[in-house]
Write a structure and sequence with these properties.
Layout: H1 4-13, H2 17-24, H3 28-35, H4 45-55, H5 61-64
Length: 74
Amino acid sequence: MLYPNLEAEMKRFGVDQRDIAQTTGKHVTTISDWMNGKVDSAFPVKQAIKVQRELFPTLPIEYLFDEQPIQRAS
């Protein structure tokens, strides 16, 4: 997974790739490809902002979309 913090928070918040697809208006396969690094570009900034604002408003976007795992303070 290219975004380990996003994956961890998805589990914590009960969010799945279908929720992200619905939020961004993209197909689930596209979301999976972005999250697994199967496409040439990373998660597009515009889509990342939508995900953060609508699904994880209390978490910093820099944390969610960092490619290195970061321990979040509880």
